Amino acid sequence: MSNRKAYSLELDVLQNTESHKIGEDTTEIPPGGFSEKTAFMNLQMQPAVQSCLNGRSVYPCHTNPRGRVLILNIKSFKDDHYPTRYGAECDTVNLESVYLQMGYEVVTRYDLSRADTLEFFNEESKDSKLSYVSSLFVFIMSHGIGPRTFVTHDAETVTLDEIMNFFLNSRCLSLNGKPKIFFSHFCRGEDEEIRPKLYPEAKREAYRDMLCIFSSTSGFLAYRHPIFGTPSVRAYCQALAEYAHYKMFSEVIGEFQKLFEKMEGATSPEVLNLSFSKHFFLNPLGRKHIPSR
Asked: What domain of life does the native source organism fall in (predicted)?
């Protein structure tokens, strides 16, 4: 079955089953009728039609692995301060599958505390392997508080800026001038009391070569299905499978937004460009080039 036909069938299922607000206070067990195996998308990635363009206006993407992908997925929370995010594993598996097929190296972490989250990204930003990749992708999935703040396993909070600051050009020389994409899936409702007031390092140095993709507009809730995971991740993976082998990344994101809007429970995704000034092609290697993990 083709990626497109499989997606059409999946869309029918999602539109006839319940989607859950991530911010909703619910700890119910996922309903029967589907298994986690049926929720995995099993997309077939295609190699690039031709190697991506070169030139001063293009971010090079020829290394093998193509890039490094960091996935932080907070599913459960200490002392049940927040409801368990059923369906979270499905998002991880789908992302791992498409990126590994495209020739990217993937590192996944579940249920980290605030301290462990900061340590993880700090260590990753210093990893010498970043010198040998062309790009960085960071995926963060959890409950959210405020437009740029998410909750860790110990019910503490971390801001997206704290994560991004590890990868500033001055602090992460291995990624200097390389594309860095941050994908955030968490509710973005306002909460002024706990939102950090200052980001000192961000004040001293501007973000460059960064792109932030939020699954919902600031101030709005995002959604998650207890079996199928988040509509935004599924739509994003589908867009990669359909278009990554011949379209620029900005065009892939445009297709992702179109697919996402068709899904039940979809919100309005937001894209924030932080001096992401060049064209970028994912340049996938294809399914047979899955790197060892």
From this structure: Eukaryota
